Amino acid sequence: MPNKLVTGLLLTSSLLLSASVFAADCSYRGVLDEKFCDENKDLVADTPKDSSQWRDPSTLVFTYTPVEDPAVYKDAFHEFQQYLSEKTGKKVIYYTVHSNAAEVEAIRSGRLHIAGFSTGPTGYAVNLGGYVPIAVKGTAESFQGYNLIVITRTDSDIKELADLKGRVIAHTSASSNSGNLAPRALLPNLGITPDKDYQVKYSGKHDQSIMGVLSGDYDAAPVASDVFHRMIDAGRIQQKDFRIIYTSPRFPTSAFGYAHDLKPELAEKIKEAFFSFRFSKDMQATFGGADRFFPITYKEDWKVIRDIAHATGTAYSKTGLQKLAEKDAAKAAKKRAAKLAKESKAKS
């Protein structure tokens, strides 16, 4: 027993010493997780000083935010994956994620090296996952933006925001900028407060909110304008069936970037691949006319998003991510239960 006690004390002392050395080695980390350092104060994790902590994997793992059907984007980014492989000299595979929380956990755990995160969850990826955003889809002139739009059916008696009072409104997910955070930050200034003036129901995704409004499951929904217009272009919905009663200022679309601890030479090749790649006509059609990845910085270009998050009390912390994961899990369980009930009813 004494030997075990001594061993335990030695281990504890070693861990405390390691923690203190790590803390002493980082003079500033801002709001980043304790795993990361931000001594240049650009709000994203610095490359580790110790080269032994740099990663240089033989296979790079890439994914894109689960905004809609993941399979659609796996195909859409196939050309870029090939280009990324050519530029880095490494195999690139696509890793399908089904929730924002799962994507953040993947970058945090090191299972994901390069990714596109939707606007809202980008903050979680930066603070908790060591994610370094470098680009947004765009053109030679600017990055591609989108708006929060509030939609209802054309035949609805909802004509303006005031008419949302007492109704059932679909928000997408807790971490979504246009689907939840922006309406909570912006609409109260226009006389409508979510959860107070109307009942919020989470749909899970933008396309599910849109289809839910169309089917009559929800009276209206705040959604991302780019998702709405992509669904129209794809023939999934018709614009004549919807009325837009509010359009917000412009936000940046999904951020693209890489894990902070990749070997610097590899990170440079990844950046070169992003900024020299040009979208094919098929990709341009899929992504609303964007023909390239436009360079951005998290500090400057995500300021409006961080301001919205702060205004709504959203913290890009472990606790915030845990709550996001719990909501994702609850929605997934509800969806599975509904599917089983539907199958059971069909059999009977």
From TrEMBL:
This is Phosphate/phosphite/phosphonate ABC transporter substrate-binding protein. Pfam families: Phosphonate-bd (PF12974). GO terms for cellular component: ATP-binding cassette (ABC) transporter complex. SMART domains: PBPb. Residues 1-23 form the signal peptide. PANTHER family: PHOSPHONATES-BINDING PERIPLASMIC PROTEIN. It comes from Marinomonas transparens. Keywords: Signal. InterPro entries: PhnD, Solute-binding_3/MltF_N. Residues 59-290 form the Solute-binding protein family 3/N-terminal domain. One of its GO terms (biological process) is transmembrane transport. Belongs to the phosphate/phosphite/phosphonate binding protein family.
